[in-house]
Design brief:
Elements: H1 2-14, H2 22-26, H3 49-77, H4 87-106, H5 116-124, H6 130-154, H7 156-161, H8 175-196, H9 199-204, H10 208-211, H11 213-231, H12 237-247, H13 250-254, H14 258-278
Helix pairs in contact: 3-4, 3-6, 3-12, 4-11, 5-6, 5-8, 5-14, 6-12, 8-11, 8-14
Length: 287
Amino acid sequence: MEGKEEDVKLGANKFSERQPIGTTAQSQHKDYKEPPPAPFFEPGELKSWSFYRAGIAEFVATFLFLYITVLTVMGVVKSPTKCGTVGIQGIAWAFGGMIFALVYCTAGISGGHINPAVTFGLFLARKLSLTRAVFYIVMQCLGAICGAGVVKGFQTGLYQANGGGANVVAPGYTKGDGLGAEIIGTFVLVYTVFSATDAKRNARDSHVPILAPLPIGFAVFLVHLATIPITGTGINPARSLGAAIIYNKHHAWEDHWIFWVGPFIGAALAALYHQVVIRAIPFKSKS
């Protein structure tokens, strides 16, 4: 018994019972170096196959995202009774689950943005160049258009008769309500992206990059639960554009600006909050 008690004591002494938290934890790992900001314009990227491979990955991921999610929406709205379908919760799971899966699949190739608002927020934080940001957004939009187009090709009449998954401000809400919902919803998403992919956290906690797709997908799920009744939940300009182009009716375009302005404002606020308040990067010593 004495030997076992000694082993216990050694184990207790080997691993500290109190782990540093908050600012104490942030002061650990003095060898951590803040990665340099991405260049504003990097012409050399245009000659690299990895640059185009990343764009193709964004196209395919956004294509699959629109295909699965809009098809889920069509399955819900065509049913005469919502109890016979997956309902709003199922739609939210489809969006969140696809983001979880697609971020996991493409993070190592393109970063797994699948959303122009995410790309815009990361660009503002100097995580990627303007060259790459513009290329990603173009490929995301093209992928979204193709994904919605395939859904319409499967069931054209049903697609046109049931709104085509296009984002609009629901009756009973103002355009200001819709804009606010898109700003806050995108803030939640992009703030989660920054937190889940933070380089300093990755250096301190090795499990963070492995788990990153999970909180990002879960954030998308929760935002959809909250805002589907208001705007159908955009928080992704490519998703909104793809559905609007393929559906192509006046009321889909009337509110379409909300689904670009709102997400871009939300992404900018999230980038500002994370970089200035959470990480305090502008206030760090240059030495």
